Amino acid sequence: MIEMISIDVNLCIGCPACIQACPHGLIVRLDEGASRTIRFSRCEVDCDICVKICPEKALSFTEKGGETEIVLPLQPCSSCGRFFATKPMLEKVRSCLPVELQKDSGGWSWLEACPSCRRGEEGLRAVREILSRRS
Amino acid sequence: MSVYVDMERCIACHACLVACKQRHAGVSNISLQIVEERAAAPQLCRQCERPACMAVCPSQALVQEDAVIAFHIEKCTGCELCLLACPFGVVWSDKLVHKCDLCSGDPACVATCPTQALLGTFQEAVVRIRSRAAKTLQRGLR
Questions:
Q1: CATH code at A29?
Q2: What global pTM score does this model have?
Q3: How far apart are CA B61 and CA B54, in angstroms?
């Protein structure tokens, strides 16, 4: 009997682990505006890859119910404005990082910049001295 | 161990990116930031002493091995928390997560850089900076 997936909305952080793991492409992500929707279609075969891989243990099997979805808020990049991650993902990162990192970098503001803008900012910082000499 | 970058010497030729791609099945673990078309800064994993990527990984796919932050793809869940945790934005995902692995101790980018802007050891980086500082001082005294 093919079962259905049940999501614990208090645990799911909206990361792409299950989406990438589903061998049948039945879990899809839709980023629209400031929110991300993750939609679980009815499973076609018996498999438990997504349930096993979920780093937050947010997925389980249920016998009843059909398609299901979860909607999570997205974080805009503080520099370029692009929505780059869900807010619960960033909250998870923040809770795992050692406090020393916060001291070193003057607060958590860097966490709200997308990886691409972090590289840009770091590149600029690294060559600032050179730029003044070359101008 | 890490790859050290001498920004003064980088000419933004992209040779390091190409060498990295050749070594890593078509994906590069280096990003080149060109600033105002006057200077360039290659960005790659710094092999942090207290790695943020490793601290957030829920499946211990990122581990400290000697002085390298090694990535074990078979343990990776693909959650991409490491991408968000890296303060320098130098962990990537292209379906699969990838970052600089120092080419198992023989970095292709260092070997290929035509201006020797990339250095493979801390010792070389220190020698470079000290000799430059000495030359600057000498010029100033004349």
A1: 3.30.70
A2: 0.90
A3: 8
The pLDDT of residue B62: 95
Model confidence pLDDT, tens digit, residues B88-140: 999 999 888 999 999 988 999 999 999 999 999 999 999 999 999 999 888 88
Q: Which of B36, B89, B95 sits opposite A119 (nearest CB)?
A: B89
pLDDT confidence bin for B1, thresholds 50/70/90: confident
A69 and A90 in a single domain? The answer is no
How far apart are alpha carbons A12 and A49 in whole angstroms? 16
Which residues, numbered 46 to 105 in chain B, qualify as contacts with chain A under a Cβ-Cβ cut-off of 8 Å? Answer: 50, 52, 55-56, 58-59, 77-81, 83-92, 95
What CA–CA distance (Å, rounded) separates A5 from A18?
11
Domains and CATH numbers, chain B: 2-44+101-142 (3.30.70.20), 45-99 (3.30.70.20)
The answer to whether residues A53 and A83 belong to one domain is no
ipTM of the complex: 0.91
Which residue range forms the structural domain that includes residue A115? 76-134
Which of A57, A93, A112, A135 would best serve as a mutation to test chain B binding (most B beta carbons within 10 A)? A93
Residues 15-44 (A) with a CB less than 8 A from some CB of B: 15-17, 20-21
pLDDT score, position A129: 85
Q: Which of A13, A20, A91, A105 to mutate to test the interface with B (most CBs of B within 10 A)?
A: A20
Output the pLDDT for position B77.
94
Backbone angles phi, psi at B60, to 5 degrees: 55, 40
